[in-house]
Design goal:
Blueprint: H1 3-14, E1 18-21, E2 27-34, H2 38-50, E3 59-64, E4 72-79, H3 87-93, H4 106-109, H5 112-122, E5 123-125, E6 131-133, H6 140-154, E7 158-164, E8 169-175
Antiparallel strand pairs: 1-2, 2-4, 3-4, 5-6, 6-8, 7-8
């Protein structure tokens, strides 16, 4: 796997991307975004396709989010064919129950390009300045690990903010505008 492809995949796996083990030696990725972020979605799709990772055709779909009955959303999604080059990433980003995790060696994996993709994928501009990274599905210890890497590797000042959602409470990383 090229460094460029790895950097892109690390960024999207910290965001909305998913990885799935598909056998002893292969894995596949899937990725989706709101149709409102079509330009970014196409950038990810084309960048990965240019790296010769065999991708299924992108799919457009409408759906209703169970948290907001009656409201319809549109999304774009794609997945890859199973590939042996993806298995090492699956081993890093999935625990023994196949739940997505933050790898213990994330400091080695997170590059400036990965960070850019992560922010484009799952970052939110904050009106008063700064960016929030949606880390809703990671454990507190994993979020602290990410926070430490952002500080030590990129000298970014961050705090963890607790948000109350419709179904649960979750934590997000806020990157200060300073």
């Amino acid at each position: 796997m090229s460094k460029n492809l790895r950097d892109i995949l690390v960024g999207i796996l910290l965001g909305d991307g998913s990885i799935l083990k598909t056998g002893l030696n292969k894995a596949s990725i899937s990725f989706g975004q709101s149709a409102q972020k079509q330009t970014y979605f196409e950038k990810v799709y084309n960048s990965i396709a240019e790296e010769n990772l065999n991708l299924n055709k992108a799919i457009y779909r409408d759906f209703t989010d169970f948290r907001y009955p009656g409201k319809t959303y549109s999304s774009l999604n794609f997945s890859s064919k199973p590939h042996e080059d993806l298995k090492p990433l699956a081993d890093l980003f999935l625990d023994e129950n196949n739940r997505k995790i933050v790898p213990s060696n994330i400091s080695e994996l997170l590059s400036p390009k990965s960070l850019a993709y992560w922010i484009m994928d799952d970052g939110q501009h904050v009106n008063r300045g700064g960016v929030t990274l949606c880390t809703d599905n990671f454990k507190h210890e994993e979020i602290e690990r990410l926070q430490e890497v952002l500080q030590s590797k990129f000298d970014l000042k961050t705090t963890i903010h607790i948000k109350k959602g419709v179904q649960n409470t979750y934590e997000r990383i806020y990157i200060s505008k300073n």
